[in-house]
Write a structure and sequence with these properties.
Number of domains: 1
Radius of gyration: 22 Å
CATH superfamily: Amino acid/polyamine transporter I
Helix content: 55-70%
Shape: globular
Strand content: under 5%
Oligomer: single chain
Order of helices and strands: HHHHHHHHHHHHHHHHHHH
Structural class: mainly alpha
Largest sheet: none
CATH topology: Amino acid/polyamine transporter I
CATH architecture: Up-down Bundle
Length: 484
């Protein structure tokens, strides 16, 4: 979920001759489609869907139609009419407190996102050192803590080089290994080897064993989140009304290919009951490389995946917290301690506080049996918290269209109400389904699963933002404070 924003014109642009200023920066619809693909696509979720074999196609297509597309279109209209991101959209459409809730949830989801991301990194590193470590909770916890605090140290120094990491992450850690995985898988099948998962038409739909059989679809909503990030570029298109939908349809197709094909490749070689939700990609690479007698490539594949994940973490580590900081300095939503900047202009106190919570979460990997189970719980909590943002955004979009119909917009969504209702219902359904444990957890852990997910959602998505709004003081407001 790394954004590839085009740098805005800086002060140096003003000093250039006027003739240069006439030509406004433009994006082609193809460029925007590739940028959006880079923002959304990742191999990290592939093992989660690989356990469903051919049915992963269905499980990816459904949220793409009812969530990915509505999110992309609605955020484009909002971004083309109101700058300031989701806080501005929800504040003007609903209220400032709800706007704070939206931007808080954007930040809070990273509290569980980073542990799950770094758990994936830990399992990948294990395949370079000792594959048995991939299922070791203590090892996973140590790696999460070391990498996160290293990331905080790097980010707190305001390293500008981090800005371009997302584009390299897409190529090195997603496109190249993803292509290798799929090509090897196709050659593997072409040589007459049987697929570990059935690939017949009767397996296109997931086997119905109760609501739990569809729970993994919830994780796909998080996989698709981030479409609103690049919506800010809609005004840079020559003809937004025609080019933006075309760009989003192409991006959706590319994202689906990047998600579906590697997931299928994993299912061809790793049986569902042996697939690790954190190490599934490396399981597939190891199996393919062993079969083709090129085992020396396993560490190379691991390094590529690690580089992409770490680039994504560093690129995003300070992003959501910076947005929260800027709004809080103007409106007084956070205590002064959390609003302080270090000498590099970075919100170090927020990062450190978040790091303490991340450390506690990391320890759960050591205390709760089954790394895959912990990984799935944290991924679900991340999705639940982030879904609150979209629930608010869809309602705000309808209210803004009704209350400010004449407000200038570079792009208008056809049948906006229908699109918003579809996206809202899909988000609400995903939030509810997220409380049902997937079939892999069995019946004995249902109570613990619901308690963890419900507790995480309640504390992060409701109680903490309510407490900030309830107890904030006028002295917390720092008007004119610069977060740069």
């Amino acid at each position: 979920m790394a954004s590839m924003d085009i740098p805005a014109d800086g002060p140096h642009e003003v000093a250039r001759p006027a003739v240069r200023a006439v030509a406004a920066p433009r994006l082609t619809w193809l460029t925007l489609a590739l940028m959006t693909t880079a923002s959304v696509a990742s191999l990290r979720a592939a093992p989660t869907m690989a356990v469903y074999g051919l049915a992963c196609v269905f499980l990816y297509l459904v949220p793409a139609v009812v969530f990915l597309l509505p999110t992309a279109l609605v955020s484009a209209e909002l971004a083309s009419g109101w700058n300031g991101g989701v806080y501005r959209w929800v504040s003007e459409g609903l209220s400032k407190p709800l706007g704070f809730l939206a931007v808080w949830c954007q930040f809070a989801m990273t509290i569980f996102y980073y542990p799950s991301l770094l758990a994936f990194v830990a399992s990948t590193i294990a395949y370079v050192i000792n594959p048995a470590l991939a299922s070791n909770g203590v090892y996973t916890a140590i790696v999460i803590m070391v990498l996160y605090w290293t990331g905080v140290w790097v980010s707190s120094r305001g390293t500008k080089a981090l800005a371009g990491l997302s584009s390299w992450g897409l190529v090195i850690g997603t496109l190249v290994p993803g292509t290798i995985l799929v090509v090897l898988g196709m050659v593997f099948l072409a040589q007459g080897n049987p697929s570990a998962a059935p690939m017949t038409a009767s397996h296109l739909l997931p086997q119905w064993t109760g609501l739990a059989s569809l729970v993994l679809i919830v994780n796909n909503f998080l996989s698709y989140s981030g479409m609103e990030m690049n919506a800010v570029h809609v005004s840079s298109l020559k003809n937004p009304a025609k080019e933006y939908p075309k760009s989003m349809f192409l991006a959706m197709g590319l994202v689906l290919l990047i998600f579906i094909l590697p997931a299928l490749a994993i299912s061809w070689v790793v049986p569902a009951d042996q697939t690790s939700l954190t190490a599934g990609v490396m399981q597939a690479f190891e199996a393919f490389f062993s079969y083709f007698h090129i085992g020396w490539m396993t560490p190379i594949a691991a390094v590529m995946l690690i580089s992409a994940s770490l680039a994504g973490m560093l690129t995003w580590l300070a992003g959501p917290s910076k947005g929260l900081l800027e709004i809080s300095r103007n409106e007084g939503y956070l205590p002064p301690y959390l609003q302080k900047l270090n000498k590099h202009g970075i919100q170090q106190n927020i990062l450190v506080t978040q790091g303490v919570v991340t450390t506690v979460i990391a320890l759960m990997y050591a205390l709760i049996p089954g790394v895959s189970s912990v990984y799935w719980i944290f991924s679900t909590i991340t999705t639940q918290v982030y879904l609150i943002v979209y629930l608010l955004m869809f309602v705000a979009a309808i209210r803004l269209r009704r209350n400010q119909p004449d407000h200038p917009r570079g792009y208008r969504v056809p049948a906006l109400t229908l699109v918003c209702v579809t996206g809202w219902l899909a988000s609400a359904a995903a939030l509810v389904i997220g409380f049902v444990p997937p079939s892999q957890f069995g019946g004995n852990s249902v109570g613990a699963y619901v308690a963890f997910v419900g507790g995480g959602l309640l504390v992060l998505g409701v109680l903490i933002p309510w407490a900030f709004l309830k107890f904030r003081k006028p002295s917390w407001r720092m008007e004119g404070g610069d977060a740069e």
